[in-house]
């Protein structure tokens, strides 16, 4: 292989999202859960730490290579809620289900995951009650245990 050569950036395909409103999160196990999304941080992707491939034959640089597996990172959201959500949360915590994020343009990202935590903020006069909700992607079908990648579906026209 030869030394790396510069590559020119080209204009991306698709249409960028100009506003995050209104991004919604659906749990298949409770599609009408009593909270209202205020901010949503979708899961990211992480390749993990690099593998050190340096040997005594290296002369100038330490060498590294990427890992083979990826991690779909945790997602978080801030939500307003009805107090009756407490019973719904109790029945949804640690239950593996399909989680779907619907972006403002209609695109969706669906993945297997579970509700890890629901942490209410302090209740104060003059502010709407909110909670931080954390979801862990499992990438594993709860029925079969098979590895399953997240599924991105573009809305028509995007």
What's a concise summary of this model?
The chain is mostly beta strands. Helix content is 5%, strand content 35%. It has a single domain, classed as Elongation Factor Tu (Ef-tu), domain 3.
Structure description:
With 158 residues, the chain is mainly β. Helices cover 5% and strands 35% of the residues. It has one helix at residues 85-92, and strands at 24-27, 35-41, 45-46, 51-52, 64-65, 71-72, 75-81, 97-102, 108-120, 130-137, 151-153. The strands form 3 sheets. Strands 1, 2, 7, 8, 9, 10 and 11 form a 7-stranded antiparallel β-sheet that branches. Strands 3-6 form a two-stranded antiparallel ribbon. The longest helix is centred in the middle third of the chain and has 8 residues, at 85-92. The radius of gyration is 21 Å and the shape is elongated. The protein starts with 23 loop residues before the first strand and ends in a 5-residue tail after the last strand.
Supply Rg. 21 Å
Largest sheet: 7 strands, antiparallel
Count of individual domains: 1
Quickly count the helices: 1
**Fraction of residues in helix:** under 10%
Global shape: elongated
Strand content: 35-45%
The first-level CATH class is given as Mainly Beta
Mean pLDDT across the residues is: 96
**Distance between the amino and carboxyl termini:** 38 Å
CATH topology heading: Elongation Factor Tu (Ef-tu), domain 3
The CATH architecture category equals Beta Barrel
Based on DSSP secondary structure assignment, what is the total number of beta strands? 11
Order of helices and strands: EEEEEEEHEEEE
SS-based class: mainly beta
Task: Extract low-pLDDT stretches.
Answer: none
């Amino acid at each position: 292989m030869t030394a790396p050569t510069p590559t020119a950036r080209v204009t991306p395909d698709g249409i960028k999202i100009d506003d995050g409103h209104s991004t919604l999160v659906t749990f298949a196990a409770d599609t009408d859960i009593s909270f209202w999304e205020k901010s949503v941080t979708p899961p990211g992707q992480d390749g993990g730490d690099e593998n050190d491939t340096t040997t005594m034959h290296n002369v100038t640089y330490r060498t590294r290579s990427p890992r083979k597996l990826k991690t779909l990172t945790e997602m978080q959201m801030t939500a307003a809620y009805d107090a009756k959500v407490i019973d719904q949360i109790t029945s949804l915590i640690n239950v593996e289900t399909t989680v779907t994020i619907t972006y403002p343009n209609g695109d969706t990202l669906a993945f297997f995951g579970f509700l890890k935590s629901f942490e209410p903020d302090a209740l104060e006069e003059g502010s709407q009650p909110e909670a931080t909700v954390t979801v862990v992607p499992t990438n594993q079908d709860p029925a079969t245990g098979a590895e399953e990648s997240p599924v991105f579906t573009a809305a028509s026209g995007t």
